[in-house]
Amino acid sequence: MSTLVNRDISTRIRVATAGSLSPTVEWRASTPSYTVQTAIAPTGSGYGGAIPLGTSSNVITLRLYNNFQGGGGIADAVSCVLACYDDTLHQGQATTLPVTNAYLAVSVADYNGTTTGSDGGTYYAIGGSVKHPVPVNSGTIGGATTNYVTINIKIVVPSSATQGAVTQGLWVEYTATA
After folding, report:
1. How far is Cα 24 from Cα 5, in angstroms, rounded to an integer?
2. How many domains does the chain have?
3. Is 109 left (phi over 0), alpha (psi -120 to 50) or beta?
4. Count of Cβ atoms closer than 10 Å to residue 90 Cβ
5. ∠ CA(88), CA(141), CA(87), 5° rounding?
6. In the structure, what pLDDT confidence band is assigned to residue 178 with cuts at 50, 70 and 90?
7. Alpha-carbon distance 56 to 101, whole Å?
8. What is the average pLDDT across 16-24?
9. Which of 57, 142, 148, 174 could be cross-linked to 77 through a Cys-Cys bond (beta carbons 3.0 to 4.6 Å apart)?
10. C-alpha angle 96/97/101, rounded to 5°?
11. Which residues span the domain enclosing 56?
């Protein structure tokens, strides 16, 4: 038996500071032309790309940009954390087993290509109330110019999982400062 797990991705502002433009945070591809990503589909070694029980999916690398267009007056995204919820519409809702059992694993690789403070290839399971603080650049994605954090994502399906397909939301939560 195997299970196929899909992950939708979304970004969410927790708090915005009055008087400044909010951060313009977007999930984008990690390779040129850095297209906006609204859904990802991790695959495994099972039939049709299913992720067999007790295995991991392929690693998907994304960039989380603030101010991709390089506009003026964009606020910093601070205290960034990665979170996983039931889907992209229900922030804070974590009722499905893949979320509550933290099948999604993330590893922060760099900030603007600099690995100082990164996760060093270690993956952290996230889901529901279990979140992962972005460790690079003190958890801030600057807004004054184009800045990004590179994040590796994979699905780790335990051998005790049940077969099925599920869509879930990968979120970045942050506060904003001018």
Report:
1. 28
2. 1
3. alpha
4. 12
5. 5
6. low
7. 14
8. 65
9. 174
10. 125
11. 2-177
